[in-house]
Write a structure and sequence with these properties.
This protein is 32% helix and 22% strand. It contains 17 helices and 26 strands. The C terminus is likely disordered.
Length: 589
Amino acid sequence: MPVVARVRRLAALLTLFLLAMGSARAQTAPAASPSPSPAAEATASVQVAALPATASAPTPLPAEPLLEVPLGNSRPINASPSVDASGSLLASPSEAVASSSLAALLAPPPVVVPRPKSLMVLHTNDWYGLFDPVKLDPYSSRPKIVGGLSRASALIEKERSRGLPTLLLCSGNVLGPNMISAASKGKAMVEAMNRMGYDAWLPSNHDFSYGLNVLRDRIREASASAVLTNVRWAQTDQTLARPYALFERGGLKVAVLGLVDTDVTEFIDFNETSRITVDPPLEAVQRWVPLIRRAATPDIIVAMTHLSLDREMALLTRDSGVDLVVGGFNTTNASSIAIHEVVGVDGKRALHAGGFGTAIGKARLTFEPTPQGDYQLARIEPGLIRLDDETLSYKNAEATGSPIVTLSQETKRLAAKAWTEESGKVAKLADSLESDQVMGLVPEIARLQARSEVGVVPRSFFHDERVFGPINSPRSLFYAMPWEDALSVVEMKGSQLSSLYYAARGKRAFFAGLTEKDGAVWVNGRPLDAKTNYTVATTYPAAQGKVLGLEGLSGNNTRVMTISVRRAVMRYFRQMGKLGLEVSPTGFP
């Protein structure tokens, strides 16, 4: 920049500064001032007359010496400017102050860019009331001991210690069925959840098995929020538990829903089904998500679910309003971990951890700031912590998870006492039975207890024997068939029974009283008559036609007994005097 232009710029800045200083001095000057000359007075009068009526006359500026900057390279009069080593003109202190003040006024405000935020979601499902590890190997080249509450508790604490905001969820089937947890009707498992610090849990199908009143008590005892969005009391129309729960983690607001399948009524007593109303899951989502968005303005909505995969997929669409699904239900035995991740649109995910406490789901969520000032889910990074010896040894978990170990030991003691009081001495079977042998014995006992001509029990009624070892006592029978399904009697035509037998034998169900001979079906040693009515003893869900392969049982006259299939088996042992005695499969009719 030429020297003249630079000097003019400095002069202009100094003039602005001096005008500001003069205005400030005028405002603080005393009221008395020297009388102006006639010429000045005339000029002032003209200026005042020219102002609008609402304006005030400007205050005359006091006489101040101005820095004169002549043209050319001549030096200013009455000024001694500074120069740098190269001879360039430097600003005076007054000029520097004026320049910095103006620069501060003209400078743009600092821009603060919000940083992304992260959240860790840990999740489990289908504990089935188990405290101890299961003795099997669901993974190739893995140790035989897998899972266990104490190991899970230690690993959850390890994940929390990393410092990332964390949410711990359980997607159903936590209270049972299991002989140990059944002694307290799931109360011990609620205490375990409390000690492990769960934030929310979803009561699902087997959590209903002890009855609605018991479930209500367990919900009240839990420190974690029980969330059920689509189950309502029929009489009051209020949800059985909270319709949703809201959590704040690391500056993020997380809303959690809870959805169960409509067939949850299969798992409660027949006489209690009319007490509740179960809404279709998608209808509940369409009703509640807009309400939650308006009332809570969450950064993310998570749905804990206990649904079939096809119904979960409806929640992964663009317009569902659900951002993440944490599911259960998709595990039938401990040797097959369910599909861990199901991908939807726009990066949505449905995550499952597998059943029997064999793994913990782990998902890191990343949120990016939006122009509106809130945060939007940008990325889901799922993972799975397998509870095997390579992750954390069971002995080490017993030391680090001591509160859970103590609770487990006390629960086992109470369960053994309750078992003795209910069933007497524990019988020892003459031979260890494989699961297929037991599956053949139970429908026979059900037929005898219900005084029916045929017995049929679905394969899904039984646990896999690899979870609990060989079946050699009534106690191990409990493990093999822990469900509390009511014993029911269905009346049906011989033609229907014949079709049912060929469709479901061996694959979907086990029969007693029916055999095949010379290409025809026989009933208790006699040829089946297509037109004759027969009585069939079965489980209540099967009688409703809600078991795959046994749909033909529905639509017929049905009588529901006041005893479960499992208790009917135990009653048979007592009636036959077999408790405390060795029995053999040949001892059954």
